[in-house]
Design brief:
The complex is a heterodimer of chains A (441) and B (432). Chain A has 441 residues and is an alpha+beta fold. Chain A has 16 helices and 8 strands. In chain A, helix 7 runs antiparallel to helix 10 and helix 10 runs antiparallel to helix 14. Classes of the chains: A alpha+beta (441), B mainly alpha (432). Chain B: Keywords: Cyclin.
Chain lengths: 441, 432
């Protein structure tokens, strides 16, 4: 309710207050496209951005029970947006702030003047010799064909002479941030919801013959309500391509399946399933499942420690792969029980809280799911669609399985996130991002 | 090597002619004649349709896909039974579970172990491919059939020279057609558009794409790099990043895999040569015999498996040859990818049956796609026509490409030997 109250209050501010706000101008350069502000807005409230500045100066009210879903109702009140602005032009969007910088793109937060929605703008520079980067071409053309509640939505594509901008829906945080905010493992119920959405998204893209190929927590976006969305399809492909195009960053190495690490190039949807399995364990225990240190061999040996080293019996054709080493034959080939590996690790720092954290072995069905997903031999891995049928997801309402593609699972009554056990930013969980990013309040 | 040289030198002369062609309203010199020819052909076609009773269905036909798996294949949203899909498309029944198993196996072999989703992917492919065809009127009139043929011919040469994947060529030409459809192109830029589409297709399909400078060199530096990159942006914004295409080659492979050939043989002869052409392909060590000679040699020396492998390779290459010839014909743009694939394979079989006795045995190919016989015959007729003209026409890059021994020399072998049969087919089609 505070939301609704706040906005008209600002509008009706007396003139002397407004001028005082003018003198307090802090960083007008953050709002880039001021020239684009339509005229008619100036008449009733001169310089709408002053009101924003003013709101910043005010003591911030703590809104503990704010409902993020009201966001849209508020944005409707903004009059500076215009009807009939075209898609595909830069002037239809306002840059608000920089969110981050990727390998080939910079991401900004922005707001659409077409419908007032918040957007994330991925600006790709095209000043290279090669023209439009191939990652951008693949991502753009793939995302055009994907419409699903668990895949990030591509709103618009803007092309100018020196840059290419993908306009995505704005999603507040990602799984990596979420996990670092709630250290020591997530609530099992939340893990179940995230996992369900992840597998639902994967099942969808696999059905369309698309592989994501770069699954990691940074690429899974999480909204306020807990919707999980697959993002960053720069490495994705409709068909398999040898792994040279695979990112060489160490981070992704952790989520890479053994067959790809060994140099196999004929991988398929099983590739993403391994990554999803690693993410499941990371969510439960709060630390990466298989953090290799430096290189491919190290990563592989880490996997063998858990799964047992493969041989021709358990994995036909393994020894013909390019990175296979004969000395691995001496390693034990028996797989350990996953709950024994990850269920019993004790960190010294958090040993008291440790007790209340449910680990892999204690969450019903989690171990089964993880062991079905983490198989060395690619063909043994469960498919995303079958995984959704496993016991781990039994407690979720059955309606979730009948939802149409574009409906979020949170539209089903009774489905919502639980409060996490630990939060670095207590006592206001999840407020942190809102106060930092959301300039409207 | 000699063959390759000729391919390379067969040369961009024709292309430079194309560049010199006047802009906009002044029509290129050959245009009038061509138009007349086109008109004449159209009239002829109309007559033919009337006489043979071939009518193009205009209404909305539904594409019904029925999966009759005991367990119910699809668990997710796209339900188990009749999936109705709008637009112009076909009836498809995966009627027996046997065929379905075959299909799954084939998909697993072609598309790398996706049997878990085989049915859904296949039905998606069928849905998408129906949108991948054009109307004849989609190409602007000032781009005549002859000009288009020259351009495609040049693209085939560049594609061959850079040793790209087969799919890249099909995608490039599809993109080019799309761009021609949506934009108002000027004739002097035609080659630039072709090169740009190839460049884009490479970025989509290939691991390593050529430098823009290489492509500029291929165009004899008529356009500089900046122009190429600018055109790339233009093409992308015109196509609105919708670059997905269902490859006719995928359908061809599926057809062959589900056919009567034992799958392993088919996999070996189709997939392996592509992956590592130097080692896995025994035919390459054989110097350029004609295919007949090789076949007769094999009867005595090679094991039956080897022989069957060669049969599959030959039929596959011949079908690919017919399909690739169709890239040049602007009339062939109206066909759906699956239609092209099935017609190509059908024709290849007929030709091989006609020219060699040993081919009677493996003639069975499952009908995965239900195109009516008339529809297929129409495509086959076009293909036959094109292959008769191939060796003598100006644009014979495809002919030369498929005369190499690594492609079973199908264009000089069976296609030439069977020319009489082909012409009789054409004759028959035009008079019946």
């Amino acid at each position: 309710m505070g939301v609704v109250w706040c906005l008209p209050g600002c509008r009706r501010a007396p003139p002397e207050r407004r001028s005082s706000a003018c003198s307090l101008q802090c960083k007008p350069e953050e709002l880039t496209d001021l020239k684009e502000v339509p005229r008619e807005v100036n008449a009733p409230q001169r310089g709408w951005y002053h009101t924003i500045q003013e709101r910043r100066v005010r003591p911030q009210r703590v809104r503990r029970h704010s409902n993020p879903l009201q966001e849209r109702a508020v944005t409707k009140g903004f009059q500076w947006q215009r009807k009939g602005l075209p898609f595909g032009t830069a002037s239809s969007y306002l840059n608000l702030e920089k969110l981050g910088e990727g390998s080939y793109a910079t991401v900004y937060k922005g707001i659409s003047r077409i419908n007032g929605q918040l957007v994330a703008m991925k600006v790709i520079s095209m000043k290279t010799e090669e023209g439009v980067p191939f990652t951008a071409i693949r991502e753009g053309s793939l995302l055009k064909g994907l419409k699903h509640a668990n895949v990030v939505l591509l709103h618009d594509i803007i092309q100018t002479c020196e840059s290419l901008t993908f306009v995505f829906e704005y999603v507040q945080t990602d799984l990596a941030q979420y996990m670092s905010q709630h250290p020591g493992g997530l609530h099992p119920h939340n893990v179940r919801l995230f996992m369900f959405q992840l597998l639902r998204g994967l099942a969808y893209i696999h059905r369309l013959h698309v592989l994501h190929r770069d699954l990691k927590p940074q690429n899974l976006l999480i909204s306020y309500v807990g919707e999980l969305k697959l993002a960053d399809f720069g490495l994705a492909r409709a068909k398999s391509v040898p792994s040279q195009t695979y990112s060489t960053e160490v981070v992704t190495l952790w989520y890479r399946p053994p067959d790809v690490l060994l140099g196999a190039t004929d991988y398929s949807s099983e590739l993403d399933i391994w990554g999803a399995g690693c993410i499941l364990i990371e969510m439960l225990q709060g630390r990466p499942a298989l953090p290799g240190i430096c290189n491919v061999t190290d990563q592989l040996e880490k996997i063998w420690l858990v799964m047992g080293a493969p041989n021709e019996e358990s994995w036909p054709g393994v020894s013909s792969l390019s990175n296979y080493r004969t000395e691995w034959r001496r390693l034990p080939s028996k797989a350990r029980q996953l709950s024994a590996v990850w269920g019993s690790q004790v960190t010294s720092a958090l040993s008291i809280e440790e007790d209340c954290i449910l680990r892999l072995g204690r969450v019903k069905g989690a171990e089964e799911l993880a062991s079905r997903m983490l198989k060395c031999f690619p063909r043994d891995r469960v498919s995303a669609e079958r995984a959704l049928e496993l016991y781990f997801f039994q407690t979720l309402p059955r309606q979730l399985y009948q939802l149409p593609d574009v409906r979020s699972i949170f539209t089903v009554p009774g489905v919502k996130l639980e409060t996490e056990f630990s939060d670095l930013f207590t006592p206001y969980p999840k407020m942190q991002h809102q106060t930092r990013f959301d300039w409207r309040f | 090597m000699a063959v390759e040289n000729t391919t390379r030198c067969h040369d961009f002369k024709t292309m430079t002619d194309l560049q010199k062609m006047p802009d906009r309203k002044r029509e290129p010199l050959t245009c009038k004649d061509n138009n007349i020819i086109l008109e004449a052909e159209k009239d002829e076609k109309k007559k033919r349709y009337q006489t043979t009773g071939f009518k193009q269905e205009k209404g909305v036909i539904f594409n019904v896909i029925v999966c009759s798996d005991d367990k119910g294949v699809s668990v997710g949203q796209s339900g188990t039974c009749p999936v109705a899909v709008g637009s112009r498309s076909r009836l498809l029944f995966i009627h027996s579970s046997l065929l379905e198993r075959d299909l799954k196996k084939a998909m697993a072999n072609v598309d790398m172990h996706v049997e878990k989703y085989a049915c859904e992917i296949f039905s998606n492919m069928m849905k998408e491919q129906a949108t991948c065809c054009f109307k004849v009127s989609d190409v602007p009139r000032r781009v005549t059939a002859a000009m288009r043929a020259i351009l495609v011919d040049w693209l085939v040469q560049v594609h061959e020279y850079c040793a790209m994947q087969e799919e890249t060529l099909y995608l490039a030409i599809y993109l080019m057609n799309l761009y021609l459809k949506t934009s108002n192109i000027r004739i002097p830029k035609l080659q630039l558009v072709g090169a740009t589409c190839l460049f884009l297709a490479c970025k989509m399909e290939e691991n390593a794409y050529p430098e823009p400078a290489v492509l500029c060199f291929m165009m004899e530096n008529t356009y500089d790099k900046a122009a190429l990159l600018k055109m790339e942006r233009q093409v992308l914004s015109h196509l609105r990043f919708e670059l997905r295409y269902t490859q006719p080659l995928d359908f061809l492979r599926l057809l062959i895999m589900t056919g009567k050939f034992s799958t392993e043989v088919a996999v070996k002869s189709i997939l392996l040569p592509k992956n590592n052409p130097s080692s896995a392909n025994p035919r390459q060590s054989v110097p350029s015999h004609s295919a007949d000679a090789v076949a007769s040699e094999n009867d005595s020396t090679f094991a039956p498996v080897e022989q069957e492998k060669q049969k599959v390779a030959e039929i596959y290459n011949l079908a690919m040859y017919f399909m690739e010839l169709m890239l040049m014909e602007s009339e062939a743009m109206t066909f759906e990818p699956a239609q092209l694939a099935e017609a190509g394979l059908n024709l290849a079989q007929k030709v091989l049956q006609e020219t060699k006795e040993c081919f009677d045995t493996c003639s069975e190919v499952h009908k995965l796609y239900t195109y009516s016989n008339t529809e297929l015959l129409h495509v086959e007729h076009l293909m036959a026509n094109a292959s008769i003209r191939a060796s003598t026409s100006e644009t014979k890059a495809t002919y030369l490409k498929y005369s190499k021994s690594s492609r079973s020399s199908v264009s000089t072998g069976p296609a030439t030997v069977g020319a009489q049969y082909l012409s009789s087919l054409v004759h028959h089609a035009s008079f019946s």
